[in-house]
TrEMBL record:
InterPro entries reported in the protein's UniProt record: Kelch-typ_b-propeller, Kelch_1, Kelch_repeat-containing, Rhodanese-like_dom
Keywords on record: Membrane, Transmembrane, Transmembrane helix
Domain Rhodanese: 306-327
Gene3D superfamilies per UniProt: Kelch-type beta propeller
UniProt source species: Oryza meyeriana var. granulata
UniProt superkingdom: Eukaryota
One Pfam family cited in the UniProt record for this chain: Kelch_1
Protein name: Rhodanese domain-containing protein
Transmembrane annotation, as ranges: 18-38
């Protein structure tokens, strides 16, 4: 049954300059999210067919960045104090040129572990934590043409609030599984699709079992969902399912089992390029609910962030490609395919060895799909 929502912001022809800054907007969401999580964990016990359809009109260097002399010091932005909040250091320790970044309009609300999809000149930003005890249940829309936010509308009441799997075909946005509620509550297997032309929601068949932040992509007319974290929020899942879909509708009533992913876990970039399915980065482990806690209070558990890159080819076999320059997670909505090169902005890497807090990635990575070579075209700091 359709669920109507309020109208989105009016569409306008995309601006070349503003569309080129789309990656910055996505990065801002990731960074704000990680800042909030880091600050909340300090006061609690020891927590883009593609993910987005970005404009390809970006002027990227054709050659790897020139190396920086070995005497150059590691660039960091140390922890700063903002009132009672402490923000983690951002590390850019790989050689890369520094580019000038332009700040975009501030988002209406802060978000952690939300989701975002771009369709033409509009960026749809979904759900996420506002604080560890509050989750958003609405969608905000950013317009790249005039650098404004507007067109807010509600999500279905049964839809997950964070750790969503999500992908778009250019009109319909498929929303899969995720965590329902604040803190470290359990996941839901419910799935939905949004028709961005009418702002109506429709149901999709539920997953066989719920997952947190699974890799999600459309490939060969099927909606693929794989990996993520299992119901305890910590154990990585290896399962891989697919569902035939067309124009926002499921063509089957049940999900089909596919070849399992070699390494499970959440928060990975999932890309279709050259008719191949790629899964990049991610992590194993996550915060878990404290046993017996009535509010499912999040407590820290061990995490392993990794740099692995896998591809599923015509033979339906997973193969491992050269790894990323450093381990990188929380990048499911921080990538774009430009001229057959994957650009991945920011993310989180291995935790600080002393404070045990997450460390934000200060680089932009480029993976050339023709040569299978990783480079670092620029950094944020």
């Amino acid at each position: 049954m359709a669920r109507p929502a309020t109208a989105a912001a009016p569409k306008a022809p995309p601006s070349k300059h503003l569309m080129a800054l789309a990656v910055v907007a996505i990065l801002g969401i990731v960074l704000v999210a990680d800042f909030l999580w880091a600050s909340s964990s300090s006061s609690s016990p020891s927590s883009p067919g593609g993910a987005a359809i970005w404009s390809s009109r970006l002027d990227l260097p054709a050659r790897p960045a020139a190396p920086v002399p070995s005497s150059a010091k590691k660039k960091t932005k140390e922890k700063v104090s903002i009132g009672s909040m402490d923000i983690n250091a951002t590390f850019a320790d790989l050689p890369a040129p520094e580019l000038e970044w332009e700040e975009m309009a501030e988002a209406p609300v802060p978000r952690l572990d939300g989701a975002a999809m771009q369709i033409k000149n509009l960026l749809y930003v979904f759900a996420g934590y506002g604080t560890i005890n509050h989750v958003h249940s609405h969608v905000d829309i950013y317009n790249f043409s005039d650098n404004t936010w507007g067109g807010r509308f509600d999500m279905p009441k049964e839809m997950a609030h964070s750790h969503l799997g999500m992908v778009t075909d250019g009109r319909y946005i498929y929303v899969v599984t995720g965590q329902y509620g604040p803190q470290c509550r359990g996941p839901t297997a419910r799935n939905f699709v949004l028709d961005t032309a009418t702002k109506e929601w429709h149901d999709l068949p539920p997953l066989p079992v719920p997952r947190y932040a699974p890799a999600t992509q459309l490939w060969r007319s099927r909606l693929h969902v794989m990996g993520g974290s299992k119901e305890d929020r910590h154990e990585p899942g290896l399962e891989h399912w697919s569902l035939a879909v067309k124009d926002g509708k499921a063509l089957e009533s049940e999900w089909r089992s596919e070849i399992p992913i070699p390494r499970g876990g959440p928060h990975r970039a999932c890309v279709v390029a050259n008719d191949k399915l790629l899964v990049i980065g991610g992590q194993e482990g996550d915060f878990m609910a404290k046993p017996g806690s009535p509010i499912f209070k999040c407590v820290r558990r061990s995490e392993v962030v990794y740099s692995n890159v896998y591809v599923l080819d015509d033979g339906m076999k997973w193969k491992e490609l050269p790894p990323m320059p450093k381990p990188d997670s929380h990048i499911e909505f921080a990538w774009v395919n430009v001229n057959n090169s994957l650009i991945i902005a920011g993310g989180t890497t291995e935790k600080h060895p002393i404070t045990k807090k997450m460390v934000l990635v200060g680089e932009v990575f480029r993976f050339n799909l023709n040569t299978l070579v990783h480079t670092v075209p620029c950094s944020f700091i």
